[in-house]
Amino acid sequence: MNKPLVAVIGTGGTISSVVDDSLDVLNYPDISRKMNSAEAIARIQETERFAQYVPLPFRAVGSSAILPSDWIELAQLIMRTAQERPEIRGFVILHGTATIEETGYFLNLVLKTDKPVVLVGAQRPASAVSSDVNMNVLAAVRTAIDEQSIGKGVLIVLNDEIHSARDATKTSTYRLQTFRSHDFGLLGHVDGDRIEFYRSPVRKHTLESPFDISEISVLPRVDIVYSYAGADATAVDAFVAAGAKGIISAGLAPGIPAPLERKALERAAASGVLVVQCSRAGSGRVARRQYLCDQGMLGSDNLNPQKARILLALALTKTNDPDKIQAFFEML
Ligand code: GLU
Predict the structure, then answer these.
(1) All domains of the chain, ordered by start, with CATH?
(2) Span from the CA of 78 to the centroid of ligand 1 (angstroms)
(3) What angle do CA 308, 208, 286 make, to 5 degrees?
(4) C-alpha 315: how far from its chain's center?
(5) DSSP three-state, residue 58
(6) Residue 81 annotated among the catalytic residues of the structure
(7) Contact 3, 36 (CB under 8 A)
(8) Is the predicted pLDDT of residue 57 greater than 90, yes or no?
(9) Residue among 17, 119, 133, 172 to mutate when testing ligand 1 (max atoms within 8 A of CB)
(10) pLDDT at residue 106 is higher than 90
């Protein structure tokens, strides 16, 4: 029987990194060579057991260098490939862990396909002793070809765990178990015998999302302001002066900026900048309480600041109406 066909898109990241020293799990981001997708797959012989591969080179960078324009191009590449090669069962995207959750959530919001799209990263470079690269790539391939993954939105797989790209966030610099889906937990596990899902995402994604990548060429500027004791107006004013169309306030939990910052956000909102109140706690819902309604500001639901930024930027490509944008936050 023919093995299923999987498209593998390389973007770089630790998962694609090699250095000479097998004990280097620290300095490699600055000095490593990044493999392309064909090389990254070919060096893991066991991948042959599960699928055939269509390697698609895309980027070969640390994911701290991934840009919003890359998200758009990546989404276009996936959509184009899915259309031209309908026989492809699923997509595996090799990505650095630093921003994998951002790329993943963007794709979750714009891809018009129910084919499995699995982002996979690693915490130790491919050249390291006890690297997690091989098992993570194999887990991602197995997830991408599994029927249960169809229609679950964009997934992030690391450390034998399957997360929704909406919910997963990086929580630790070096630990292998860095990804967590705060509030509601992961979706399933990749075990030795099979893939086991325990949950499905309820929020809308991919085919049911209102955003369409064919209609988006550039994302409006949205910045994030991080609150701390004594924060003043400097950052907010600077972002507004730089042309921000939206600001995410990563406020003091449960979603309150410091007083001088708050005044600056009120001025920004009054001048037409869309302000979304989020929390620096990284989990938990920020509701649109009365004060936010009165100021024309929004609540971020339970998205973390970096994901709220993506949703707001996409929303602003469609509308400036705060009520309509709030509805997106409660649906996606
Ligand atoms: N894991 C990081 C990433 O997001 C660091 C790897 C690097 O910068 O080369 O890609």
Answers:
(1) 5-208 (3.40.50.1170), 222-331 (3.40.50.40)
(2) 22
(3) 25
(4) 16
(5) strand
(6) no
(7) no
(8) no
(9) 17
(10) yes
